[in-house]
Every structure is written in structure tokens, then in C-alpha cells.
Amino acid sequence: MLSSQFPAICPAAKLLCFPDSFLTLQELIFHPTDPEIRSWMQQCNFFRESMLKKGKVMLMPDIKDKMPERSFLPWSISSKLPFSTSKISEIKKIFHADDNSTMETMIVMSLSDCEKAPSLGETKRCVGSAEDMIDFAISILGRNIVVRSTENVKGSKQNIMIGSIKGINGGKVMQLVSCHQILFPYLLYFCHSVPKARVYEVDILDPNSKAKINHGVASCHMHTSNSNPNHAELTIASGPGQIRACHWVFENDLIWTVSN
């Protein structure tokens, strides 16, 4: 049983072991509480699609992964584990999470996010195995798909120069699946469908030497009527029904698209 074996296998399996050795969740991943700082950070993460031009110099946000290192559980194990806020007592027992602990808070927050209703036109799923992620992407996009991510973190928080640009699907608006890491004892991704977007692969250059330092992936989403009007990315929106804002795919985040 995983609960009885957890202390022994936790480090070897690269699970998140007893995060109460940290003071708060903010030491697991940085979430600024100052509204002005949060707003500034959000706006720095987005840019207009028109800025994706060869030779353009722009500031790249911090794309480094702040999550603690973890691994997927084998599907044969993860598929049998409880995964619901209604089963929180069982989950706490399996992962040795004490009452009112940081581990309990982390688990409840992530489960609650996974259980939120999808937005209009959105399909979503939290996946704890590579098999589940692939199955979800196939269910949305079909089998002719490929996963894309920014190659490394070089250029993060620095000025970069845009090099060669390739529009996926010929630069046409398409559907994609975007997967983002969330905090949980094992590696867990929040995956959701994005109905209208454009995706670009971009060579990222050092603005001084013009040498290639990274190969980035940028995702540009359409502005839809159900978007939160207070969301930072809408501050640079083009207008309803138009491409609103682009963002770089962060380290260890993944985008699934058609393969061409």
C-alpha cells in the first residue's frame, strides 16, 4: 500500500515529501501578495502579437519553473488513487499530510482548481500521468499531434531579439491543448483546450551578439466575450474577437498542437 511505503519511496520516486519543512506555500512557489507587483508581473508576461517580428528587441519575462521537482506516478498507480475534495481524508493519509499542514493546504487548493467548472467552450482535465496527458490531447485534437515547449530558460528576465519565426498550422487560428504544472505530491498538470489561438516557434537571439540562445514557443489567444475584463492580458487586447495577447510557454509547461 502506497501510504505505508510513502516515507521510503518518496525521495527515490521524486515525490514532494513533507513540504512543511518549508515555512509557507510561498517558499514552494512565489505568489506575490502586493496587487501592484502582481499586476506588473502579469502584464510583463504578455505582449502583442505584432511584436513577433524578426529583429524586434523585447523583454522576456521570468520563464523559469518555480515548482519543486517531482515525477509522474505510473498510470497503474495514479489511476487507482483517490482524487477529489470529497476524498481528502484518504488522500491526506496516503501522503502523510497532517491536519492544517502546508501539505493539506496544497492538496486542497489543487483539487479545488481541478474541480472548478470549465469556461464556456473549454474542456479541462488534471492529469497525473503521461498516459493521461496524451489521451486528453488526443481526445481534443486527434492523433496527428505534437507537443511543444520553450527549449530552455536562456534569456529569461532579459532583453532578447526575435530571430526566425514559424507559424504552426501556417500561422492560422487553431485549437490547442495547453498543460500547466500545479502543486501536488506527485507531478500533476492542469490541461485545457484553447479553441482559438495561434502558435509560433521563434528563434531567440542575444541582442548584442545576435547569437541564437533559445528556441521559444509563443501562444497567442483570441479575446472572447467571457474573458475576465480585469485580467492583465486584456490591457493589451486588440478588441473582441481578435487576437488579444501572446505569452511565452514557460519552462516545463507544454502545448499540444496539430503536427504541421
UniProtKB/TrEMBL annotation:
Entry GO CC? apoplast
Domain of life (superkingdom): Eukaryota
List the PANTHER family: POLYGALACTURONASE 1 BETA-LIKE PROTEIN 2
> What is the recorded name of this protein?
BURP domain-containing protein
Subcellular compartments: Secreted, Cell wall; Secreted, Extracellular space, Apoplast
Q: Which UniProt keywords apply?
A: Apoplast, Cell wall, Glycoprotein, Secreted, Signal
* PROSITE patterns xref list: BURP (PS51277)
Looking up Pfam families in the UniProt record yields: BURP
InterPro entries, sorted = BURP_dom, PG-associated_BURP
Q: Where is the BURP domain?
A: 46-259
Report whether Hydrolase shows up as a keyword of the record. no
